[in-house]
Structures are given as C-alpha cells and as structure tokens.
Write a structure and sequence with these properties.
The complex is a heterodimer of chains A (about 850) and B (about 230). Chain A is mostly helical. Chain A has helices spanning about 30-35, 60-70, 120-125, 185-190, 220-230, 250-260, 280-285, 290-300, 305-315, 320-325, 340-345, 350-355, 360, 410-415, 420-425, 450-455, 515-530, 540-565, 580-590, 610-625, 640-650, 675-680, 685, 720-730, 730-735, 750-755, 765-775, 785-825; strands spanning about 5, 15, 335, 375, 595-605, 630-635, 665-670, 715-720, 740-745, 765. Chain A is rod-shaped. Chain B has a domain at about 135-230. Chain B contains 7 helices and 2 strands. In chain B, strands 1-2 form a two-stranded antiparallel ribbon.
Chain lengths: ~850, ~230
C-alpha cells in the first residue's frame, strides 16, 4: 500500500514519488502529508494546504465531488487545461489567505504557471496562461469548498509566480488564456473577442470555483454581458479604468470596477488581486457575454428594494442601505481603489453573495455615502474598471468573502426585494430580543455591536426575558429559558425526557435492602453478638440445690464433730495399727541421747498448727521428759519462729524450757533451698545470732556444735512436701548419718513417703493419727490427740458415708440418663 | 479487773474463728474483714521479721565494721551484697527496674543450680536406687521383709512407677485416617498408670480432708474452751 499512491480524482494508482497523476494530472500529495501523525500537545501544527487534504475526505464526499465533476457537460464553463500548463509553475497560495481552499484547480506541477483567465488577463494586461486540465464541474453545483484538491490542479508549497485568478474574473480574460475550472472564465473569454495577451495575474487568493470554459458560460452570465453592453453607454462616471475593459466586458463588470474597492487589509475580500493591466480591463469591458443575472441587475439598478430605498435615500446611489447605517470603520486610505456603489453590490451574482455570510452583507444598514476614502496604493488596478464614480461609491464596511448560493434570478431578486425579518427587526427600534447589556466592563457598548451579534449573546437569566420573535432562523424552535443558554433557540435538551429542576433531587438515605438481605444481616448480627455474650445458666434449680446440699453437709459435720469435742467423749478406740514409718520414728526418738542438741525446723503454716502441735506434742513431751535435749529452732518461713515460741510455751510449757538456756531460736532462715544448703554447710556463718540478736553459737544450747552433722537429730515439722524435700535434698550430703525425723501433716505424708521408702527419712509421724499412736507410747501424754480422736473418727466416718452415698447417687443418675439415650437409639 | 492477755487473745481468736466460719453461708463482709485482717497482720509481721532478722544482722550490722576497717577485702565483701540488695530494691522504680536484672540473674542462676543438684542427688538417684533395691533380698531381709513381700511390693511399686511415667508420655503418631494415637504398649501402660495416679490423688485428698478436719476439731475445741471460761 505504501508503494503506490492513489489519485484522489481518478483513483489511478501512481508510484510513490509521483507528483501528479499520470492520468488526470491531479497533484498527488505525499502519503505522509495526508495521513500524517497526529499533532501532540505543544507541537506546532504543520501547515497543510486544503487541496492536499482531499484524500482524507470521507468517501461519500469524494464520490459526490467526483459525480459532480463527471456530470459536467461539455458546455460547461470549464476550461481545458492544455498540456503546456503542466510545465509552468503555479503561484503559491498566500500564507494567510483564508480562502486558500477556494483556489481553482491547477496542475500539481510546480513548474506550471498558475492559470490566469482571459478576462483577468485583459484587465491586468499580463500574458495569459493556458488553463489546466481539470475535471468539469457544473456551475450549479459549485459551492465554496475548502480543500478540494481535485479541483485545484496545483497546490505547491513553493511560491509560484502567478497566482490563480478568481473564477468570476476568468471570463474577463481572452479566450487564448488557459481556462480554469472557473465557470465564469469561459463566458468571459468568449465575451472578449479581442483578447489581449494574457497577463499573469497574481491573485493572492485562489478561487475554488473552477473557471468555466468559454463555451460553457451560463446563460445568465451571457445575459449579463448583453445587458452590460446595453447599459454601457448609459453608464456614467465610468472611470478611466473602465476603458481598459475589453469590448465584450459586461456592463456589470464595468460597473463593478468602479465600485469595488479592493483593499489588501480587508479579509473579506476574496479577490485580493492585483490591479489588472489596462489592456485586460479593456478585454473585460469588451465582453459581450453578460450573464442574465447581471443584465437583470443592471436593469434593476433603479429598482432598489424598499428597505434599501429608505436607507439609501439619504445616501448616494452607490451606497448600500445596509452599509449606510453602519458606523464607518476607519480604514487606511486607499488611493487606487474607489468604493463600490450599492448598485454594484446588489447586482452581484448570487454565487458570489453566497460565499459571504448573510449577516456580514445584509445586516449592515445602508449608510449615507461618505466621501470615498483614498484608495490604497496597493489596490488592484484591474478593479478600477469596476469603479463607477467616486462619489457614487462608498467603501463598504465589510466586504463579505462569501455569499449565499445563487440559485436563480428570481432568488436573487427576492433577496433584495424582501427584507428579511431579522433585518427588519434589527432595524426597528426595540425590536427583537433585547439582550441584556453586558456589564460595564465589556469593551463594546451594545449599540456598537451588530444586531446579529447581539442576537447571539446569551440572555441574562436574572431578568425577565420577553419572548419576542426571534429574528434568528430557528425562531420556531423552543426557546431555552434556563441555564447558560438562556435566550437561544434550538438548544438540544440534555436527554430525552429530561426535565431539569432548579433543586437537585433529594435522595433518601434509607438503606434499600430486600427482605432476604435484612434477614442475612440479622443473622450475622446474632452471630457476632453470640461471640461476646456470656453463656447463660440453663436452670437455677441446680445452683440452689448445690447450696442447700453444702449447708446440709456443713451442718452435719459441725454437729457430729462438735458433740464429741464438747462432751470430750472417748468412744472410739485409739488407733492400733502402727505404720512402719511411725514405728521407726518412735525408734529414732528413743535413740536420741540425753542432753543432745536437736535441730528442730518449724516449716508449717499457722493454719496447720492445731494438727501438727497435736502430732508433735507427744514426741517432744517424751523427749523433754526423758532426754532433756537442747533444742535449736529454725524456720524457712517468716512465721516459723513465732510458731516455735508458741509450741514451746504451749503444749510443752510444763517442761519450763528457757530461751537461750535450754533452747535457742535462730529465727528465719532466708533463701529457701539456698539458705538450707548454706546453713547445712556453714550454720554458724548463716545464722550467727538468734531472734534476740544474741550470739547463738556461743550459747549453751549450741555448745560444741559447729556443723549440721553435730546435731543428734534433725526434726522437721512441716505441712508442705516441698519444704520436706528441700530439707532432705539439701542436707543429704552434710547430714550424713544424722537421722532426720519428719512430723508432717496428713496431706503431705503421701509425698514424703517415698523418701522414707528410699531411706532418706528415718521416720514419719503423719498428722493426728501418728500423734495418737505416739501418745500410746508416751503414756497418753499430753492427751490432745486422744481428745480429738473421737471427733476425728466421727468426721472421717461422715466423710466416708458422704462419699459413698454421693457415688451411689451419681451412679444412679448416670444409669437413668443412659437409659433414655439407649431408648432413643432403639 | 485486769484483763489478761490470754483473755484478749482468746476473745480475738474466738471472734476471728466465727468470722472465718461464716463462709459457710457464702462470701460475706465478715469473712472479708477477717481475711483482710490476717493478710495485713501477716504482711506487717513478715516485714518486721525480714528487717530485723535479715537486713539488719546480715547487711547493716557488718557494714559499719567493714567501713571502719579500711580493708578493701572487707569492703568488697560487703559491697557485693549491698549492691545486690540495692539493685533488687530498684525494681520498685520502672525506670531503674532494669538494674535488678543483675541480682535476679545471679539469684536465679545459683538457685537453679542448687535446685537441680539437689533434685538429682537428693531425689532422682535415690529414688531410682530405692526402686531397684526393692528387688534386693538382702536389703529386704535387713528390714525383716520376706521374699514374697519383697517381690510383691517391688512388683507393685515398679509397675506403678513405670505406668505412671508412661501416662505422662505424649509422643504419638498420626494414623492414615488423620487421628493421633500413641503406640499400643504405651496406651496400655498409660491406662494402668492412670489407676495408680488416681489412687495417689485419692490418698492426697483423704490427707487434705483429714488435716482440715483436725483443724476444725481444734478450732471447735478452742471455741468451746473459751466459752467454758465464762461458764
């Protein structure tokens, strides 16, 4: 695809690099020129000639254009383009020419000269150029087009010497000139029999309309030429330039020459052409083929429309009414050109008027003809022929570049006979929509703005807008009364059925959820609440029953225990069975020498004082009575020293042991197992003083004792298995053969029993039972154990009964519960 | 009339006994008062004992002679426990509590060593040896124990020891069905050990009950004796 270039006109494939089509000589734009990349932000867009953009036109548009070209009859005013034109360079389009797309078709050859119509040649006096070959195009379908490359045989970047002549001026050239696609050129050429040599004209603007062939000039144009001839003699004030027209130049053209004032500064002047040579002017003037519309217009020069008559009453003959009312725009003097008469403007062909916006031409009211300013020096000489009289002409304020399409003579007449409503409204005072004046900060006052501009301004919504007839063509459409587009007609609604409201629609904040969704949410809330909620008690009856049962049991125990104590009964016999550990303990006690030093450790809690005192009292009673030992008390808890004092002053008070003399209280041994180990290794250093801060190891109870193994025995009174284990473990090595006797509570005896089984402990007295047994070996002294024995026995008996009864009760309940489960299974 | 200290002590004893026994009806303010009193008095007594029987005789009293002795050795000897005690007291402050790490680390380290050594030497080895000696006929004879008794006792003890230890063995393997079960021999031994453990716990419970019963009897006797003083 990239290797060939397709001709936009005849669809002929041409190789890459071809500048013109080999078939129709249409200039071929490079592929990259047509299908170039998009412009990125910041980049300067590359200039493109509109003619180069034809390949990118939509296919339907291209087909329409091709059809139009193909329907051109041989009688069309399209001039053939001789082959010679191909080699001639064409004039480059002006850089800032707004009507660059209106250029006539030219060859793509850069060397080809731009075709100059005969009539223009006659005007300018330059040598004409042969018209290029171009596809014919019916005049009726001619429209002002932009970028129709096929119509323009030449679009060159390089400047050319001879710009293309406008089509309507093409007929003014001699027939020998190369015809362009301009339709008028043909009749211009035919009208000018005595053609002057073509002069190259350098129009700055290229007429998009193709120059017609001489034989293809429309009838109206011929008629105009004829009328122009008729009125040629009647024309007065024809300037000198008129003599430059050819003999066959139409009268309207001659008249135009005096009225038109070409100024390079005017952007509305599409024909910014150089002044033609006098010879060309004559050729143009001598044109006999005047179009009908032009003849009619010349006939009707006196029949100005009413709306123009009033306006032009005070104006000169050549001043358009719409132009008379407008404030004259200050322009630089144009020495060469003269203002056109209003008659000339009214006689402009419709196609010429169609090229200009309506508002630019007809909105401007007629003004009094003013003294024509000095024409510019650089005005086109060839346009002088169109100037009638300086006083009859007036420089128009705005010369439109385009005008409405010219359909027929009747339509042309109607344009000037019937004043449009919008114009009438604009002329009437207070008519039409009165837009709100802009703030004082606006640059232009409302009165300075043309009416068509004022009509387009938005209406101030804060004011009441009178719905008055809208002079715009869309007055039938609904008027927008809200928003920024208030005052305009034909505003598209936002969307079908849209009813804009002043207030935004309020939406309910209520959650729209279906029943199913609400049910799921409720379930989720229950699950989350269940995570933090405590479990409720199933029944309160169970809790109440447990309290009553507890009270009952407590009552039973209290009563049955208190009665024997209170009555001091001795119903139950003393224990008979002597455990081995108790027997060994008795043996150890009996083996202690007299007046020996005994180390007694009080490592029990005050709550167990009753039991342990009842257990230890018989032993110490026997020892103190028979052996008179020197007692040394020590304890690994803080309360032990006080318990020792209580014990020696309570059950053993009768032995009258004195502190510091017969017994010594070393107090609290800190450090736990570390303290015991330290004491075992160096007792004198660990416990140097007693509880009275007296030196202990020099006192009588510890006379001759410096080590642990120098004690006759170690008696440990404890209710804790750990304490017993600590004493046993830490003194294992240093104690050596020193016996150790443990008087323990009933709850710790099972834990200490292995030590007795292993031989680490020499004897164990277990609670009240052991005390009771020892009392039997101590002649029943002191008797505390025997006193508690009945109550102890009853209490134990009650406990046995309760455990037995409770077990049976639970068994029955379990059996009862299993039966329903088995029945359910069955 | 002079009130003897025994009367006062007796009265207080009676009063607090009643307050403690009120727990039978449930937790009540009287019981709470008695508990708080015991806690308070005990805390005060303990504090006084620690100060007068530990800190003063073993820290402060040796400090003065050591300072006056001008001997670096004695200064070092007294400085170590002094700094250690100061570091332990630093636990009161949150900012300075980090200083107590040194003393606590020393105490924990030494204590652990002593405990482990004592347990090993004083409990583990002797207990294992004793278990073995149960099957020694000579030792049994020295204890006047017959052979059958020795074997029987030994067997029972050995079975109890092994099965009790097997009960606390939690090593298991996963089965193909995903369940975790121990080996069958371990399971059997653990089941037997559960029996011995249950019997042991029952014996412990009985001893606790016996001790508590004895304490109740003693208290009731004290109450009755106090009341009898006034009768």
């Amino acid at each position: 695809m990239a290797d060939i270039l397709q001709c936009p006109n005849c669809k002929t494939e041409n190789p890459i690099g071809s500048k013109v089509c080999k078939n129709c000589q249409t200039p071929l734009a490079p592929a990259n020129k047509i299908t170039g990349g998009f412009i990125k932000p910041g980049q300067t867009p590359t200039k493109k000639h509109t003619a180069d953009l034809e390949p990118i036109l939509p296919q339907w548009l291209r087909d329409a254009r091709n059809a139009a070209r193909g329907s051109d009859s041989p009688n069309s005013m399209e001039l053939p383009q001789p082959q010679e034109e191909k080699d001639k360079p064409s004039a480059p389009p002006p850089a800032e020419d707004l009507l660059s797309g209106l250029q006539s078709s030219q060859t793509a050859d850069e060397e080809e000269e731009e075709y100059i119509p005969d009539w223009l040649v006659n005007l300018t006096g330059k040598s004409p150029t042969t018209p290029h070959e171009a596809s014919s195009e019916p005049i009726t379908n001619r429209r002002v087009e932009m970028g129709n490359t096929a119509d323009f045989p030449h679009i060159k970047e390089e400047p050319t010497e001879e710009p293309e002549t406008p089509s309507w001026l093409a007929g003014l050239q001699s027939p020998a000139t190369e015809p362009e696609k301009d339709e008028l050129t043909e009749w211009f050429r035919s009208a000018s029999e005595a053609e002057q040599p073509h002069h190259t004209v350098e129009p700055k603007i290229e007429n998009p309309v193709s120059t017609p062939q001489p034989d293809e000039s429309p009838d109206w144009l011929r008629q105009m030429a004829m009328d122009a001839e008729q009125t040629e003699d009647a024309q007065t004030g024809i300037s000198q330039a008129e003599s430059e027209f050819p003999a066959d130049a139409p009268d309207w053209l001659r008249n135009l020459g005096s009225a038109i004032e070409v100024t390079p500064s005017s952007g509305l002047n599409p024909f910014n052409l150089t002044e033609p040579a006098p010879a060309e002017s004559e050729a143009l003037a001598s044109s006999t083929e005047t179009p009908e519309w032009l003849k009619n217009e010349s006939q009707k020069q006196d029949t100005t429309p009413k709306w123009l008559q009033d306006e032009g009453a005070s104006s000169e003959a050549g001043t358009p009414a719409w132009l008379a009312n407008e404030t004259p725009v200050q322009r630089p003097p144009e020495p060469d050109s003269q203002p056109l008469s209003d008659d000339i403007f009214t006689e402009l062909p419709g196609w010429l008027k169609a090229a200009a916006p309506e508002s630019s031409i007809f909105n401007q009211p007629a003004k009094e003809p003013e003294a024509s300013p000095e024409p510019q020096q650089d005005s086109q000489d060839w346009l002088k022929a169109f100037q009638l009289t300086p006083e009859a002409t007036q420089e128009p304020e705005n010369i439109p570049a385009f005008s409405t399409d010219f359909h027929s003579d009747e339509n042309v007449n109607s344009l000037f006979t019937e004043m449009p409503d919008w114009l009438s409204n604009a002329m009437e005072p207070g008519s039409g929509i009165s837009p709100s004046t802009s703030p004082a900060e606006d640059a232009l006052a409302p009165s300075d703005l043309p009416s068509w501009v004022q009509a387009m301004r938005p209406v101030d919504t804060s004011k009441v807008v009178e719905e008055k007839p809208n002079p715009t063509p869309n007055k039938d459409l609904p008027l927008e009364s809200r928003g920024a587009l208030a005052g305009l007609h034909g505003v598209l609604p936002a969307m079908p059925g849209f009813t804009p409201t002043s207030k935004p629609k309020s939406y309910s904040i209520k959650l729209n959820a279906s029943k199913e969704q609400m049910a799921h949410a409720e379930i989720l809330e229950q699950v989350l609440a269940a995570e933090t909620s405590p479990d409720s008690i199933e029944t309160l009856s169970t809790y109440k029953a447990s309290r009553a049962l507890r009270w009952f049991v407590a009552f039973i125990v209290f009563v049955f225990v208190a009665i024997p104590v209170f009555l001091r009964t001795q119903i139950f016999s003393a224990p008979v069975g002597v455990p081995n550990e108790t027997r060994d303990a008795i043996s150890v006690v009996q083996a202690i020498p007299e007046s020996s030093a005994l180390l007694v450790a009080f490592d029990y809690e005050p709550s167990r004082a009753g039991e342990l005192e009842a257990s230890a009292a018989p032993v110490f009673d026997q020892l103190l009575l028979l052996k008179h030992p020197r007692l040394t008390f020590i304890s690994t808890n803080e309360i032990g020293s006080s318990l020792a004092e209580r014990f020696i002053s309570g059950p053993l008070a009768g032995h009258n042991y004195q502190s510091g003399a017969t017994y010594l209280n070393l107090g609290y041994l800190s450090g736990g197992q570390l303290g015991i180990r330290a004491f075992a290794q160096n007792p004198a250093n660990v416990a140097p003083v007693d509880i009275n801060s007296q030196s202990a190891w020099t006192s009588a109870p510890l006379q001759g004792v410096t080590a642990l193994n120098q004690f006759a025995a170690v008696i440990l009174i404890t209710d804790n298995a750990d304490s017993a284990r600590a004493w046993i473990e830490q003194t294992e090595i240093t104690r050596k053969d020193t016996p150790i006797l443990v008087i323990s509570s009933a709850q710790s005896t099972p834990m200490i029993q292995p030590y007795y089984a292993s031989g680490q402990v020499d004897g164990i007295l277990s609670g009240l039972y052991g005390g009771a047994i020892f009392e039997q070996y101590n002649a029943g002294r002191p008797g505390t154990a025997r006193m508690y024995w009945d109550a102890y026995s009853i209490g134990m008996f009650i406990a046995v009964l309760l455990v037995l009864f409770g077990g049976l009760w639970n068994l029955a309940l379990g059996l009862r519960d299993r039966q329903p489960a088995g029945k359910r299974k069955n | 009339m002079a009130i003897s200290p025994d009367l006062i002590s007796g009265a207080l004893s009676f009063l607090f006994t009643i307050l403690i026994l009120s727990y039978v009806i449930g937790d009540n303010p009287l019981f709470r008062v008695a508990v708080y009193m015991f806690v308070g008095v005990t805390s005060g007594y303990v504090a006084s004992v620690v100060i007068w029987q530990v800190l003063v005789p073993r820290l402060i009293t040796p400090l003065i002679p050591a300072v006056l002795s001008n001997s670096p050795m004695q200064w070092g000897m007294i400085a170590a426990p002094l700094l250690g005690s100061i570091f332990v007291f630093a636990k009161i402050s949150q900012r300075l509590s980090g200083l107590a790490r040194f003393s606590m680390a020393y105490l924990v380290g030494v204590g652990a060593a002593v405990t482990v050594a004592g347990a090993l030497i004083g409990t583990l080895i002797p207990q294992v040896q004793a278990t073995i000696e149960f099957f020694d006929p000579q030792i049994a004879a020295a204890r006047n124990i017959t052979t059958a008794e020795v074997i029987g006792n030994g067997a029972v003890i050995l079975l109890g020891v092994v099965t009790s230890l097997a009960y606390f063995h939690f090593g298991a393997r996963s089965k193909p069905d995903g369940s975790m079960r121990r080996l069958p021999p371990i399971e059997i031994l653990a089941w037997i050990g559960r029996i011995f453990i249950g019997i042991t716990l029952g014996a412990v419970f009985a001893g606790v009950y016996a001790a508590a019963l004895t304490a109740l009897i003693e208290r009731l006797s004290s109450l009755i004796n106090f009341i009898g003083l006034f009768s």
